[in-house]
Amino acid sequence: MTDILIEGGRALVGHELVDASIHIANGTIAETSSRSGTAAMRLDSRGLIALPGIVDMHGDAFERQMMPRPGVDFPIDIALVDSDRQAIANGITTVFHATTWSWEPGLRGTENAHRLLNAIETMQPQLAADTRFHLRQETFNLDAEPTIAEWLTAGRIDLLAFNDHMDMTTASMNNPKKRARMVERSGLSETEFDKLVEQVLARADNVPASITRLATVGRDHGVPLLSHDDESPDQRAGFRSLGIDIAEFPINEETARAANEGGDFTVFGAPNVVRGGSHTGWTSAAEMVSKGLCSILASDYYYPAPLLAAFLLAADNILPLPQAWSLVSGAPAKATGLHDRGQIAARKRADIILVDAREPRRPRVVAVISGGRIVHHTEPQRILSGVVAARRVEPA
Asked: Which of 56, 231, 314, 339 is most exposed, with the fewest beta carbons within 10 Å of its own?
């Protein structure tokens, strides 16, 4: 059903929550109005808030569906379907699966990167969320550069992030617990893993040139580029000079402020807001929001987090809900070049969620419309046939 009228509740239209009806036709928003109208299907939204669907530009919770325990694998198609259901049920209508391609074998190795990209491309039509490929390239993974350049040229990568976890890896080598976890994830013996780390570190001088080459290819083909865990304003400025204008999880306020002043997008984790701080002990996302240094909130490792975080920011009077919601919808849509979504407005893609926010700190998704289709609904009594007589429609 693609001819739908949402009526009776409030909607986020522009920067305000207003009483409005929303008419959806052929996958897009036909119009918003202050009066009712006719449609093949009506959704009673009384007591609910209609919001633009969440655009999640960085989420890797799908890895838990692929490997729920170390060494326990499940087929990628099963993992993607399960992740899709979780994302949709939490109001995420656009998903960028953040796929790490590392020099390590195993879950984040070469074979899995290829399998994930192929699976996402094959399964896109049957997934409820608009599902896209966010490649997180470990910068020391130099052997992957030619393939990534090919994928960028062919338009197979939707976002490209540059990660460097090598310092963390070498530091963890002296921690028996962390080292054992890395070895187990790789599927190698301890001796083999140690040798691999040594070989990778020996090529460190080649990393900067590789980043420059891949950034050039990505920029030439219009792929949004991100840096990860920026440590200093100088590092951020270096990435910006390469056209990498999205800073993911800058680790301190100084770097976040430099990114903001340079006109870059800054991404923080929504779980950080929900939990009241970073699980790594780094920057507080809520504090960054309050200081105007956070542009975007992403699910990171927990799909319920963006919905919860936006409402918590409003409940704690850090931001009004319309501005808080922009962090999880309008701003990530802009940063990723998806200008057809992130707003409830005529001619935009019909990605809309209906939320019961009677408990402000525990909002509940009642219905999700993705690309004009109802893909999730928990209260079927709200679905009505189109029996309302036609009325004059006025702009909201």
From this structure: 339
Structure tokens at 118: 């192929």
Q: Give, for all 396 residues of the chain, the pLDDT tens digit.
A: 579 999 999 999 999 999 999 999 999 999 998 777 777 899 999 999 999 999 999 999 998 888 888 778 899 999 999 999 999 999 999 999 999 999 988 888 999 999 999 999 999 999 999 999 999 999 999 999 999 999 999 999 999 999 998 888 887 887 888 888 888 877 888 889 889 989 999 999 999 999 999 999 999 999 999 999 999 999 999 999 999 999 999 999 999 999 999 999 999 999 999 998 776 667 899 999 999 999 999 999 999 999 999 999 999 999 999 999 999 999 999 999 999 999 999 999 999 999 999 999 999 999 999 999 999 999 999 988 754 434 444 444
Phi, psi at residue 237, to the nearest 5°?
A: -65, -35
Q: Helix (H, G, I), strand (E, B), or coil: what is residue 307? A: helix
- Overall pTM surpassing 0.85 (yes/no): yes
Q: Which residue has the tokens 């009506």?
A: 42
CB 97 within 8 A of CB 133: yes
User: Both tokens of residue 362?
Assistant: 């525990």
CA pair distance 119, 108, nearest whole angstrom = 15
In the chain, what are the domains? 4-51+345-385 (2.30.40.10), 54-336 (3.20.20.140)
The span from the CA of 70 to the CA of 180, in Å, is 11
In what order do the strands lie in the sheet containing 16-19?
16-19, 10-13, 49-52, 352-356, 364-370, 373-377
The C-alpha atoms of residue 302 and residue 77 are separated, in whole angstroms, by 20
| Cβ atoms within 10 Å of 313's Cβ, excluding its own | 26
**50, 325 contact by CB (below 8 A):** no
